[in-house]
Amino acid sequence: MKRTPLYAAHQKLGGRLIEFGGWEMPVQYTSITDEHLAVRKAAGLFDISHMGEVFVSGAGGGGFLNRTLTNDLGKLAVGQGQYTLMCNERGGVIDDLYAYRLAVQEYLLIINASRIEADVNWLERQLATFSQRNQVKLENASEATGAVAVQGPRVAEFINQCFPGASTGGTPLAQASDLKKNQIASFHRGGDTIWVSRTGYTGEDGFEVVAPGHLIEAVWDQILAAGKPYGLRPAGLGARDTLRTEVCYPLYGHELDEHTTPIEAGLGVFVALDKSEFVGRSVLAEQKTKGTLKKLVAFKMADRSAPPRPRYPIWSTGPAAARIGEVVSGTQSPTLGIGIGLAYVPPEFAKPHTALEVEIRGKRAAAVVVLKPFYRKPD
Amino acid sequence: MAKVPADLKYAKSHEWVRVSGNVATVGITDHAQHELTDVVFVELPEVGRKIKAGDPCAVVESVKTANDVYSPVSGEIAEVNSAIVVDPAMVNSEPYGGGWFYRIKLANPAELKALLGPEAYQAQIGGA
Predict the structure, then answer these.
(1) Looking at A184, A217, A246, which one is the last position of a domain?
(2) What is the CATH number of the domain that holds A325?
(3) Which of A82, A362, B62, B84 is the most exposed place for a label (fewest CB within 10 A)?
(4) Shortest Cα distance from A332 to chain B (angstroms)?
(5) A contacts of B38 (beta carbons < 8 Å)
(6) Alpha helices for chain A (secondary structure H)
């Protein structure tokens, strides 16, 4: 198993380490519920160094990426990022990711840990046939880079202590807490550059930090110390999963895979059909007009029951009850105290209030389709 | 350090047994609840069900996993603890007290001899 530069830090904090996509990562430090609630009420700190970082630069970089990603990169000002997807020719998702414009001709892609190899291979293959490939530089910096996510309503109160002073690149700012949602800025530390963005995977306010691998432990320690008086707790992959499920954010390998399109996953808003040609466009355009055979729905368990979990069958109800799909993500929601989940079903079962059943250990338990998300942070 | 009360018997699969006459109370150990952390759901057997030692007879679910509870003894389920259905967290806070799972009329009290005593169970979980 691979280890991030924060492995020793996890051990010091008593993290329970598990295997995740080839990495040895903490699933929890104390309890998933406690860590989840800390993020919702105060702050939590996650090691996300296993994720991948790819830098794309050169005069042709923006055009190349806009041909390969579904969202419109042309909309990005310097210092701005966007959620986007990379699809194959059938519109199937190779990965979901964030793309940031660091400078006029410099972009940073933050990609899923489990997809680093697949993404880089795909990008290199696409680049090989790109007409302006001599004006594009692609650099996979994943091995040399670390990252952390600090998330929760109180993070803005101590983030400036961790990255003091004005930004040195990206969005011009007097202080880190001035970053607006989806903005990114750099802060120099000696000869190194640290990128800080106002983004996250939890549905709370927060920041993500990308730094050279040799710096990330110092960044982690600093954030832990600065955040402690505000209730900051280290948080593991278990809480990361329950948090993102509550806000219906997809996880590659669950809601998304190479046989599922962004339209089926309900992510059509991140597919810019009005920009120039990109890989998968024709399939996605057809799906947007004609519809799809499956749709991602959010559902809640109707009564107290065992929580829904990935791979549990989903049934329709009534006299013609049939197996219509399966759960792709599910858990007991720490915030809501009930079972919640996401599943793919035929579109006729996708309307809110539709009654469904989840098969748990051979018995079917009542559930109901609801609007996404399950949880929204208070304004 | 996980608690291992001296007056109980234990199964290798981390269930405990408290015997009173011909009835045994069964639950999961402090070590087991500590490994699970937050218990979010418990599924108990039906009263009247006949069980053989080693049968999976209940399910205890944490945030991340669903785990079978195996009956350490054979017999008929006499009573189940609905309190832990309503408040699964009691399994974590009172594994040997309010967090009990079910009571069973022993079909074969001789089976108790095959269970572990506190020292043997402590040795199995390794003073953790």
Answers:
(1) A246
(2) 2.40.30.110
(3) A362
(4) 6
(5) 31-34, 334
(6) 7-12, 32-41, 61-68, 116-128, 159-162, 216-227, 237-246, 281-290
The DSSP H or E segment spanning A137 is strand A137-140
A159 and A239 within one domain:
yes
Same domain for A370 and A332?
Answer: yes
CATH number of the domain encompassing residue B87: 2.40.50.100
Say if CB B31 and CB B118 are below 8 A apart: no
pLDDT above 90 for A379: no
Region class of A14: left (phi > 0), else alpha (psi between -120 and 50), else beta: left
Phi first, then psi: what are they for A164, rounded to 5°?
-75, 155
* Structural domain range at position B94: 9-108
Backbone torsions φ then ψ of B70, nearest 5 degrees: -105, 135
- Touching check for A152 and chain B: CB below 8 Å? no
Domain holding A182, by residue range, is 7-51+144-246
Chain B CB within 8 Å of residue A361 CB: yes
Q: The CATH number of the domain where A221 resides is what? A: 3.30.1360.120
Which of A107, A138, A169 finishes a domain? A138
**pLDDT tens column, A259-316:** 999 999 999 999 999 999 999 999 999 999 999 999 999 999 999 999 999 999 999 9
Q: Is A20 left (phi over 0), alpha (psi -120 to 50) or beta?
A: beta
Q: Do B61 and A307 touch (CB under 8 A)?
A: yes
Contacts of A331 in chain B (CB under 8 A): 63-64
pLDDT given at position A190? 87
Query: Within a domain: residue B123?
Result: no
pTM of the model: 0.95
**Partner residue opposite B43 with nearest CB, options A34, A306, A309:** A306
